[in-house]
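Reviewers of the previous submission asked for a worked example of the structure-prediction workflow described in the proposal, so we include one complete record here. The input consisted solely of the amino acid sequence. No template or homolog information was supplied to the procedure at any stage.
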Amino acid sequence: MAERIRDYRKEYDNYHGKPEQIAKRSKRVLARRDVEKDLGKAAIAGKDVHHKKPLRSGGGNGRSNLAVTGTAHRGWNRGK
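From that input alone, the workflow returned the following structure tokens.
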């Protein structure tokens, strides 16, 4: 079976580079920074900041909607 080469440029242009996706990514980054301010960098090292009610469902970045989870929460496997 031939190995498919992933076209990251096309992926960015078609999805990740869209204004609504950029805005959502910005909210995720800001959420992590807010939790980092509250708990400290060491407390969230190697962990994810999780939105209890996802941004796609209308959730926000309020502290009550954020939780720190281990990396096992991720929906994909890095092959490790």
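DSSP finds three helices and two strands in the chain. We consider this example representative of the routine output the project will generate in years two and three.
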